[in-house]
Amino acid sequence: MNFLAGDIHYYRIYPGGLRRRMEYMKAFGVTVLQTYVPWNLHEPQKGQFCFEGLSDLEGFLKLAQELGFKVLLRPSPYICSEWDMGGLPWWLLKEKMSLRSHDPKFMRHVADFYKVLCPVFIPYLASNGGPIVATCIENEYGSYGNDAVYLRRLMELLQQNGVDGPFYTTDGYSPSYLQYGHIPGVQAAVNYRVESKIALDALRAVQPDRPALIGEYWSGRAIHKGEPYAPRVLKDVVKGFREALENQGLVTFYMFAGGTNFGFMNGANYGRTFGVTEGAPKYIPHTTTYEEDALLNEQGLPTAKYFACRKAYWEFLGQPEPPMPKISYETQTPKIQITESASLWDQVDYSKAVESVEPMSFEELDHPYGYVLYRTEVVGCGAPMELNIPYLRDQADVFLDRRYLGTLMRDRPEKVIIDLPAGQKAILELLVENMGRINFGVRLNEQKGIVGSVLMQDRIHLYDWQNLPLNIRFETNGFTPVDGPAVLKGTFRAEPGKDTFLDCSGMKKGYVRINSFNLGRYWNVGPQYTLYVPGELLQEENTIELFEQYGAEAPFLLPTCTDSILK
Predict the structure, then answer these.
(1) What CA–CA distance (Å, rounded) separates 414 from 398?
(2) Closest Cα partner for 204 from 180, 177, 173?
(3) What is the reported pLDDT for 274?
(4) How far is CA 279 from its chain centroid?
(5) Edge-to-edge, what's the strand order for the sheet holding 486-493?
(6) Which of 138, 140, 202, 292 has its CA 20 to 30 A from that of 79?
(7) Which of 498, 557, 555, 484 is nearest to 532 (CA)?
(8) Which of 43, 82, 138, 140 is catalytic?
């Protein structure tokens, strides 16, 4: 079998959209599919499991086998993948434990998960006549820890649950990464950008007697919110691919097929933006789109990179390029009128709030994603006082007696001033958004919300809080202008099966649901200005719902288009 692999993630593609993407991968020459398995999607609450919809792992494996692919499966507890908390379930943060270690508390949860997960994919192992030819133990562990006991126990857990291997690990090409992430006697793979020979030489130094498996050839790149979109230079990608082939590397494109971080599942980094070498590190959330500058874009269509790399591949093989298949794909631009609205304040019920001396985190409130509203009373001192939230995770819209004062975001310099006459009382409310848990590095165990004190002038502690997890209800009755957080709604007609994109460039910040399915977040800082709407989601009559954090003045037309806007 010619080995050429590509990553495609079943959980980032709306049900019904996998076949088109797999057919384009087959037309390229790909023979092996690689996918992560996100623990947090399959076990959203402790002991509650899901393997349907976006979580249909078995459906992915069946289709892969039907189309003649082999599969590299990555059921590691941690996946990174620019995914919320690197795939680890948020509810782990409710206990004190060492993540990604042989800490018995952590391993007990992994063991519980594997007891349910492994029976789902064991029928599809190669030893049982299925497409899975190898199973990954951990992901890039060498850039996180040095717990060799943990790696061995993960492999043993898989074996105890009936997974007979073969196994592999994946790490960057730094000597320390390969040393700490590699298990002697187990196939190691290397991850890198485009420096193929350097990376393959480093891998062979660790295991000279095994195939040079490339776990991730980063032909694309992550996309952060608020950062200009800068795709990789095409000629560099093609050159690195050809260099890998010439050095007998078994290539896996990451990503081959892009996708979408539907809902609130985008992750975040903590560091510096691409190309920035100075200044303090900061929190940088990933976009809803997971197009990732991939060979197949978010809607699953070939890009210029696809065709350039395809040409290079068949030239390397010394064979003519096969003709491209005719694959049906249609788009549409339905007219979407937003006709109804309501203020978030109309549905706030503080009788359901949890009271505490200091604010509580999302995890303490058993609230995994979205928003929490925090409320307390402040008393003026007759002088301006700066509001300070040292442990804000991640953004807070600040209201005094329901009047918007401004927005604070972690690691940013914005200021909000509270200025009340001496003795005057007012209600302070903070609408706090969890913008995505960090997916890589030392802050993997970070909780969300307000995880410490709220201060005025860096020293006056504000006590006695009401903490209200928000499960936003999209209940409206006509349109009334809203100055502040708003629930918006409309209906529209569409042709089922045809894709479209919402053009959210005229909106400010929030998220969108269509037919009760959460498409994800939008934010006017860019570089993403559209939200992908899979045709499989659409019906003849559709409902659209938006939570817009900064209000709406009148009914409006929400534009649609036929491609993503990234700039």
Answers:
(1) 12
(2) 173
(3) 60
(4) 26
(5) 517-523, 509-514, 541-548, 486-493, 336-343, 556-558
(6) 202
(7) 498
(8) 140
**405, exposed or middle or buried, with CB in 10 Å at 0-12, 13-18, 19+?**
middle
Helix runs in 343-450, H state only: none
Q: Active-site residue 216, yes or no? A: yes
User: Tokens 């549905």 map to which residue?
Assistant: 347
Give the C-alpha separation, 186 to 188, whole Å. Answer: 6
**Any idea which residue has 């995890």 for tokens?**
363
The answer to whether the CB of 302 falls within 8 A of the CB of 326 is no
φ/ψ of residue 104, rounded to 5: -55, -35
Report how far residue 302's alpha carbon sits from residue 297's, in angstroms, rounded to the nearest whole number. Answer: 7
Q: Helix or strand or coil: residue 57? A: helix
* Burial 130-149, CB ≥16 within 10 A → b, else e: bbbbbbbbbbbbbbbbebbe
Q: Does residue 358 have an active-site annotation?
A: no
Q: Over the stretch 224-279, which tens digit does the pLDDT of each residue have?
A: 999 999 999 999 999 999 999 999 999 999 999 999 999 999 999 998 666 666 77
Of 216, 433, 446, 545, catalytic? 216
Q: What are the structural domains, with CATH classification, of the chain?
A: 5-317 (3.20.20.80), 336-341+473-561 (2.60.120.260), 358-463 (2.60.120.260)
Task: Please list the residues that pair with 172 across neighbouring strands.
Answer: 191
CB 241 within 8 A of CB 312: yes
Q: What is the dihedral of CA 209, 175, 192, 170, to 10 degrees?
A: 60
Q: Are 400 and 432 within 8 A, CB to CB?
A: no
Rounded to 5 degrees, φ, ψ at 548 are -110, 120
